[in-house]
Amino acid sequence: MTDDIVTLYKRIGGRPGIVILVDSFYQKVLEDDSLRDFFIGVPMDHLKKMQEEFFSIALGGPSEYSDIKLAHAHQGMDIATRHFDRFVSFFFATLESLDISDDERYQVISQINTYVDDIVGDSQSLM
Questions:
Q1: What digits encode the pLDDT tens for the residues 72-84?
Q2: Quick one: which of 28, 87, 22, 100 has its CA closest to 57?
Q3: Contact call for residues 62 and 56 (beta carbons, < 8 A)
Q4: 3-state SS track over the chain
Q5: What does the buried/exposed string (b/e) look like for 106-122 if buried means 16 or more CB atoms within 10 Å of the residue's CB?
């Protein structure tokens, strides 16, 4: 990871900043008609903890991410590339609200996009 991304983790306030980022992010996601149904019945406290770990890594923070395979976790959910792109666009907007520069946001999104195959089974993400 680049020093710029490591700085991002520190700049947003480390672990407390990640918690705020995830809460803000999921407010957007859960209000969206195209994504909301994917989270029905999902224990959000657990999901947010997993996302805090994942986004911590994406922003250059410490790695405590469990070794659960993303493909396994998302299997059978019928997540299409358009859903993944929408999800990522909310993360992009959340980073923007934290005054993260365009270049830095694209670096983070580029890293997140490496997981598109595990989530949707193809690599056609547009972001």
A1: 777 777 888 899 9
A2: 22
A3: yes
A4: CCHHHHHHHHHCCHHHHHHHHHHHHHHHHHHCCCCHHHHCCCCHHHHHHHHHHHHHHHCCCCCCCCCCCHHHHHCCCCCCHHHHHHHHHHHHHHHHHCCCCHHHHHHHHHHHHCCHHHHHCCCCCCC
A5: ebbbebbbebbeebbee
SS3 content of the chain, % helix, strand, coil (to 5): 65, 0, 35
The two tokens of residue 105 are 């946001």
Whether 118 and 79 have beta carbons less than 8 Å apart is answered as: no
pTM attached to this predicted model: 0.77
